[in-house]
Amino acid sequence: MTVDGTIRIVVVDDHPLMREGLRALVASLPDIDVVGEAGDGAAARREALLAAPDVVVMDLHMPGTNGVEATRAILRSAPATRILVLTMFEDDESVFGAMRAGASGYLVKGARQEEIVRAIRSVAAGQAVFGPSVARRIIDFFAGAPRPAPAAEPFPELTAREREVLDLIAAGHSNSAIARHLVISVKTVSNHISAIFAKLRVADRAEAIVRARQAGLGTRSRQGDS
Q: Residue 14 pLDDT more than 90?
C-alpha cells in the first residue's frame, strides 16, 4: 500500500467492459486506486511487475496465458502481491487450481459490488476470502474427502506457538486479530507465519489454510467465533 493507505490494484479481464466496470466501481473510493489493466495472463504479469500493485483482480479463463498460470507467474516474481480471482467459473478445477497457484481470494462474477470491494480490502490486509458458493464447494470437497487418522500432534515440526498461530490462520483470522487473540504484536505474528510457511514448505496463506484444515486445525476457533 501507499503511505496514505491506498490499495493499488491491477484489473485483469479479457472483456473491456468488465475492466471498465471495476474501474468505475472503485473510482469514488478514496482507499483503492486502479494502477493498471490487462486483457490476458501474459500482459497481467508484465503489468504487475511494472505497476507493483497490492492486489491483482484476476479473471481465470482468458486467451493465451490463463489466470491460473498468470497467478503462479506473478507470485514467483512478486510474492507479496495478493491475487483476488473474479471469474464466471466455480468448478473444482478452477477453484482448486487457483488456490494451488496461490490466490488469496475467489469470487464469482455476479457478486455484489460491496462484496467485491470488501474482498479487495480483506485480501490486501492478508486475509483469505472466498465467496459463499466457493466456500461451500471447498467445505463439501474436504467433508467428502477421505482423511487419514489424526496424529497425536499435527505438524510436529512447528512450535506450540506456531501451531496456535496456524490454528487461527485456518479459522480465517487476520494477522491483527491473531495478535489481539494471543496478546502479541502484529510483527511477531508475521514472524511466526514466515516460520510456518518455511517449515511446511507452503508458498502462501491459502495453501497453509488448506494444509491446516486437512489436519483438523481451525475448527475450534471457527466454532468459538459463532
A: yes
Q: What is the mean pLDDT of residues 3-30?
A: 91
Strand order across the 82-87 sheet = 32-38, 7-12, 55-58, 82-87, 105-108, 129-130
Integer CA distances (angstroms), 31 to 6, 7, 8, 166, 216, in order: 4, 6, 9, 29, 37
Segment 133-156 mean pLDDT: 68
Question: What's the CA gap between 116 and 63, in Å, rounded?
Answer: 24
- CATH homologous superfamily of 7-140 equals Response regulator (3.40.50.2300)
How far apart (Å, rounded) are the C-alpha atoms in residues 56 and 120? Answer: 9
Q: How far is CA 132 from the centre of its chain?
A: 15
Q: Which residues of the chain are in CATH 1.10.10.10 domains?
A: 160-221
